[in-house]
Every structure is written in C-alpha cells, then in structure tokens.
Amino acid sequence: MPIINSLYQLGETVAEWRRYLHQNPELNFDVDNTANFVADKLRSFGVDEIVTGIARTGIVAIIEGRLGSGPTIGLRADMDALPIVEASGKPWSSQVPGKMHACGHDGHTAMLLGAAKYLAETRNFRGSVTLIFQPAEEGAGGGKAMVSEGIMDRFTISQVFGMHNMPGLDIGSFAICDGPIMAALDDFDLIVRGKGGHAAAPHDALDPIIISAQILLGIQTLVSRSTDPLKALVITASKIHAGEAYNIIPMEVEIAGTVRTLELHLRDFAEKRIYEVANGIASAYGATVDFSYKRHDPVTFNHSVSTELALRAARQVVGDRCVNPSVNPVMGSEDFAYMLEARPGAFIFLGNGPTAAPHHPAYDFNDEALPYGMGYWVSLVESVLG
Fold this sequence. Notes:
This protein has ten helices and 16 strands. It is of the alpha/beta class. The strands form four sheets. It has an eight-stranded mixed β-sheet with strand order 1-2-4-3-5-16-6-15, sandwiched between helices. It is elongated, with a radius of gyration of 24 Å. About 45% of the residues are buried.
C-alpha cells in the first residue's frame, strides 16, 4: 500500500487539523472560521486557484495535473457540525456549548485537505481536480445551493465523488453499491382539527388527540400493508403537540414527521397516501386535517461507471478483501445527492471502527481512518486522471 505508507507521514498533522475543527464546530452556512481555516491551508499548499464565498461560505479549489490536459473531477467534503451537546469525553471535545461535530465532517474536511496537500506536491495526473468544501449539509441545503450557483459548469466538472465515514465498518475498509446508496428525505406536517371542550365531558367535544392516534396507526400500515416488503419506505412521526392542561380537550393536534425512500414512485406514493389516510380517518370522526409535504434531499444515486472507478481506487488502497461492492443502502439522507443529480459520480463509505453512531453525543471521528480516506482520494485522482 504505497499510497497509504506515504500518507502516514501526514497522519499526525492531519489529525491535528481534524481535532482543531472538532473543537471549533460551526452550523449550517455559518462556517466562517472553518472556511477560513480551509482556505489558509489550501493557500499554503500552493493550489492553482481558490474561490471562496460560494453558497456564502463554500470553497472550491483547483489543482492542475503535470501530465497534460484531461478532464476535471470533483471531490467533495462537508464542513458543518450539529446542534448537539458533546459527551465524547475526548481531550479535543467541542469548546462551543451546544455544538459538536457529531457526524464526522471534521474528519471529511481534514482528509480532503490532506489529499490536497499531497496532490499539490505530486500532481501525478492529467487534467485537474476540483476540491469542493461544502457548508450546510445537515439539512440546510448547502449541496443544492452550490449546485444552483453553477459550480459544475463553472469549473467544468465531468464527474463528482463523495465520501462519508461509517461507524461499525472496520478501519481500513470501504463499502459502496451501484445505484441508490442513501435515501431521499421528505418532511410532512399534519394539523388535525377537532372541537375543544372539558376533559370531563368528551361527548361534547371532538377529541383530536384520539383521532390523531388513529391517524398515526393508519399511516404505519402504508409501510406494512401497502408497500412491497422488498422496497424500502420509512415513515416516522417524530413530533406531536397537543394541549396545555390536564382538564382541557384541545382544539387541534400538530403532527410532524419524516419520510425516507429509495425510489421516486414511493416518494409520490407517500405524499399522496399519508394525506388520504389522515383525511379519511379525520373525516370519519367529523374532523378536518391540514397537510403539507416538503421534498428535500433526493436519493443519493451512484452511477455505474463512476462506482467502478471508486471501487478500483478503494481496492488499490486496501485490497479487494476490505472493499464491500454491494453494501445495503442506508435510509439516512445526504445532500451530496444534488451533486450526483448534476453530474455522474459515486459516494463511498469509509470504515470508522466501533465508534458511537453519527448524530450521537458520544460520537467522534476515528483518526485512524484518516490515512485510508486520504489514500482513497489520491488513488481515485491518479487512477481516473492517470
């Protein structure tokens, strides 16, 4: 593993970068300190071009190869953290109350910086590499914003690649699949409107809490009884609010939740049928519903040719035995999906070892994974643009 061996020399430096970012988390588009840190490092590496301020705080940097003309490929890392109080107990824990890097974006950014340093020094490829440092992956639409601002055309990107750590997958391992690898994300809101009254006289009211309970049970049958069991659909009601007092039946109940799918027709099905079930049950009791459905991240869809390129690069780094080419899709979402809608590409998982799960207060990116992630980026560039 010659790439890994040479990148081990960078390992401690990159780990220091990662731990600095971990101690200084920022949210959504407000990643000014992180973006400045990234831009300063890129300047010190001597990359050919740095463009800041894309989607407010996003960065795109260019490294030209020394082997002649060729296409441009994009490599993307996300920079934002989460509004979580950290409980990892690590010496480099967050110094910002209520914010932490609970999904490993600090590691993703550090790995792409490490690869950038190596690539800027060696330039052993044709064409050019576009390094994409994206804000606001965690639900605020940073990937969509960068695509909308034209980065694919502006920087003539022909293929784009992403990577995410995966707790539970061994260090030094990769996992990927052709086609859908992460789910689409939608949200829904329901307001069930009944008739309020005294809790001691329910017959004089129209209790929206009871009706809402029936609706919650009803929409779960859309998964268990109306969807092919071999197709993935997740409907989760994650918020419910009703009433303020023990002795008052409220006028209405607010329900909110999320829908995850791997196929467009199931997205359409969920939007249509959640309303129909909720409205039907409410109507049977004499109540009404207000319904809204918001589509967010599309399916993260790996393109076949790019997936093969990603597989080849990963195998060059860790060997065939440590690369799973047909991992089961994950029902979480990822806004790298917008980039894969704009250009062919592939998204791969990197082993993070036996750590806490993403979005858990005890999570921490495993620094032992850094050389493998950097090695993958370098191998990908040198094999695709070799």
